[in-house]
Structure formats: C-alpha cells, structure tokens
Please model this.
Amino acid sequence: MFSKAINAFLLSLVATAGFSWFMWSLCQPSKKVADNAGVEHIKSLVSTGDEGDVEEAGLLPPIFESDKATSAKSVASVRAVNAYPKLTFDSPVEYTHANDGSNRVFVVEQVGRIKMFDNNPDVTSSQTYLDIRNKVAYGGEMGLLGLAFHPKFKENGFFFVNYTKNNPRETIVSRFKASSTNASQVDPNSEVILFRFKQPYSNHNGGKVLFGPDGYLYVATGDGGSGGDPQNNGQDRSSWLGKILRVDVNSTEKGHYGIPADNPFANNKEGLREELFAYGLRNPWRISFDEKGQLWAGDVGQNEIEEVDIITKGGNYGWRVKEGREDYKAEGNSTPKNLIAPIWQYPHRDGNISITGGIVYRGAQNPSLRGKYVYADYASGRVWALTPNGTKSASNQEIVPRAGAISAFGEDQKNELYLCDLGEGKILKLVEN
Model:
C-alpha cells in the first residue's frame, strides 16, 4: 500500500505540477510527496501592487521573512519527535480525540481506516476503529480525509467523516454510530450520509470536518481540482466547491442535517448554496478554531503563494480572482467587493509550495507557543509559529526546519499539539530542546 501511495502521489504531482517542480522534487530527500499544492510553475512573490478592494492583511514584503524570529515573544527552541515510537500508520491525515474523558486518540489513515489507541508514548499497538476501505477511493489527494466526533458523543455515539469515492467521483460527508462510548470497533453499516457532491477532478478535495464552538459542523471543500479553477467554483455561490460549509447535524430539515438560521445565504431565493459559510477558497487544507472562536484556514496556492486566512461568516477570500493578495484571473467574474486578504502569506521559494493549515496552540508543554498559530509546509517540511496582531496582520517564526511530510495537525484532550507525518507514517509532537 505504501508503494501504491507513492505512485499515486507522483501521478497527481505530474498531472498538476510543472516541469520545474518535478525536477525540484527529484533533488529532495526520499519522501512521499503529494501534489497538495497543484503548482503549475514556481515563481517568487514580488511587489504588492494595487490591491483594489482587498482588505489589508499581513502581506509579506519581497524579503522572505519566515526564517526570522519576527515576533517580540520568540518561541523557545523546539524539535519534532516521534510521539509514539512503536506505532506506524498508513498515510495519516488526521489526529483527534472523542472528548469522552478517556485517554483514547484516533488517527485517520487516508486509505480508509480509523485507528484508535491509548495516548501513551509507550503504546505498542493500535486497533482498527472503523474500516471503510471498500467505500473509499484512495490515491493522490483522494481518500478518507476527515473525522469529527459529535460534541455529545458520550450520549449519542455519533461521529462524522469526509471521504471521496469513485463511479461517480464524489465527496461524501456522513455519520457513523458507535454502539457504546467505549466500543473498540464501529460497524461500517451504521453509516448515514448527510450529503454528497460531485468532484470534477481528483485533486483539491479539502476534507476537514470539525465542530465549532456553536455546535455546528464545518466542512472544508476544495475548488474541484485541475488547475486555475476552470469551472470558477470558488466564486460560484451555488456550488459546494471552494467553500467552508456549515450545517446543523442535530436537525432533520434536509434529511439528516439542517441549515443554521444565521448562515449567510439561508432561505435565499437566488439558488445560492444555503450550506455555505464562506467562499473563494482554492484548497483549504486543514481548518481549526482557536480559543477565541476564530476559524483559521491554510489555503493551498496555485503558482506563487500559500496563505493563512481567518474565516468569517459570508467572507469571500478571493480565489480565483486573487491568489493570496495578488491578481490571478478576474475573467468570468464581476469585480468582487470587500475581498478578505490573508492574515499571512508566503511565496513559493526554498522548497515551500504547499501549506498545511495548523492550530493555535493552547497546551501546557510548550508555553512559548501559547496563542501562536503553528502550521507547516508539506513539501519543505518547515514548521512555523505565527503570532497574530489582531485579525489583519501577524509576525512569523520558523521553529522546525524539517519535520517531515506534515499532512495535518491535531490535539489530544489536554490540548497538546501533534503532527501527522504522511511520508513516514508517524505521529510527531513538539518538545523543547
């Protein structure tokens, strides 16, 4: 399966990346490299230009700053270590817990399995909690991509997943039910599909699902794939794609979910997607809430720019009109007003080409990281800590020069931070030197 994954990722890379990126990848250390970015060619970020109606926020100057300790409160020296040295996983893309008072944690394997084990560094084995490999189309950027436990999991046993399938190619967001809180396995036949939508291409699937502090389920979707959003899904508010969705899983208004009354397009008469919370995103690869209730997203760029966004209700984040703060392709769109620019962006340089959205750290083991947004670049393996200055600007510090092929960040029940290394099949954590 490991070799199959490598081949699938390389096919995805060749299909969506240019020759320059392909040649660059051949020179890198031997790691499993996905075209998470969908890069057509590599350019450097240059001048700011005329930003028009884009809200000012955290633009990088021409000098690449993420190697510098630009925050007044710098992070202590840290390194990434294997959190569970006796365990390995098949392409891990999610790490989470059920908030059920147990010490269990869960790892999502892209192939279509969820593994469960005790959160102990000496643990020697994991159990298969759910196996839906026969439902999941896996390869490249497709697979089982997200897992979220219901806030009342201890009472109802519900959890939610996001995965892709073929024939036809679709994204499925569905619910499973554990027979009891402490069940060691879940019946795949307990699945109830909330909604599904077509995927025109195999890449840019987003895939994260999580519950917000409001109790609603949030779902990140990519623009449908290929390159340059050929169907203009990011700006099409009638499309599921290129969005952050928000639904009420405790409602039966639409079968197995409902539309929150304050969703920006609830009850509209124009045919706009009522599930839509925010739009204009290319491939939001991992979203998370901080302690203030702010929703953070790492949005994978096209040719030049990776970005970090703070997502607000009804917000338009610009794709495909903008890539980050730069003009991309305005044709086919009326000139949008009040586009929201990223709080931070970085150029495709020094091997950085594919952001993995992270988490604002709120644990106790690394106090110098508290309140900082910890994120990574999948291709280069760098990990940074971003210090927000309000909601429109930030400062950035590299904290790990090469952690691995980081596909996701997660938390345990004590809010400690973990990193999924897809290439090596490891779960990592940060420790002070």
Observations:
- DSSP finds three helices and 26 strands in the chain.
- The chain has a mean pLDDT of 87.
